[in-house]
Amino acid sequence: MSKIISIGTALPAFRHRQQDILQFMLDAYQPEGDDRRKITLLYERCGIEARYSVMPDYSVSLHERLFYPRTMDMEPFPSLEKRMEWYSMHAPALSVEAIRQCMDGYIDKGELTWLITVSCTGMSAPGLDINIMQQLQLSSAIQRSSVNFMGCYAAVHALKLADAICRSDENAKVLIVCTELCTLHFQKGNEMDNIASSLLFGDGAAAVLVTGDNCSADGLFIKGFHSEVALQGQQDMAWHLSGQGFLMRLSAYIPQLIRDGISPLLKNALETTGLKKDDITKWAIHPGGKKILETIQKELCLQKGDLTPSFNVLNDYGNMSSPTILFVLKEIMAQLNGKSERIFAAAFGPGLTMETLILEQ
């Protein structure tokens, strides 16, 4: 049986208050009248206080920008090539910071047998995995894999891979690192998809260490996974490449799709491990947005404090895509006091894909 023994997180240097980001967006979109009031209201009610970015541009004056042109219309608007250059400059260091925190006091880098990198906001070959190997001076013989373009549920998918590896090799020690620089992909068109993604997403990284039975460290045992795809929502959450960065499709129907699917998803996931809802003591739900969390809380009849870690992460960092569920799990792990616990985790992404994970202490 495999277990999670440590989670480390990292954030880029620039913390932006949501109110400052709002002003940047209003300057970029130039909305008028009712549209301006609607965008302001969305920011005021989103449940996010601050987000992080690898660039200072979202809360500095026009003349202090480093990434976007110092022009009122932001022209020439950054190309995909420029966005990937910034990803290559910043993603490796952020990943290494999360990894160092994850491994500190738990494992020596020479003991690692696998490295799994996760990202949907930057790609190259050789890519993030090779950069991490170089910066950490990992063994050139370490096994590697990458999970790309799966979005917010990708960390759970990577944990599936790590679990399979550890079940086949009791001596395996698998390091997963999820790194997303979502703020590189801001689009200035005032379509609702752009407004919604600009409202929610921030940058961050999280690393998680998964080991086999031969590791003596305490941890959370992985009891099972379950995945479902709501195909009727495949056009409501999507992620596409363009010459000016990645384009997100994020419709207002997502909370409704999750509302319709979350109860059957929970039932089916619990059946795979022979558990009932009352057996779950902690809930780690991906904070894809305030409305999503409120919808799940209501639909599953959860208590007021059950989703506090998810609301806290949303408030402090926004939605960082794949690392976000690991930020939530890290907060939950910090609260554990040694007694028996069962954790139900769920994350959602393009497809509309719904991934779940059950952990036990």
Automatic annotation (TrEMBL):
Keyword presence, Transferase: yes
Residue intervals of the Chalcone/stilbene synthase C-terminal domain: 232-360
Family per similarity comment: Belongs to the thiolase-like superfamily. Chalcone/stilbene synthases family.
Xref: CDD domains: CHS_like
Full protein name: Type III polyketide synthase
Record's keyword terms, sorted: Transferase
PANTHER family on file: HYDROXYMETHYLGLUTARYL-COA SYNTHASE, TYPE III POLYKETIDE SYNTHASE A
Chalcone/stilbene synthase N-terminal domain boundaries: 3-213
Presence of the UniProt keyword Transferase in the record: yes
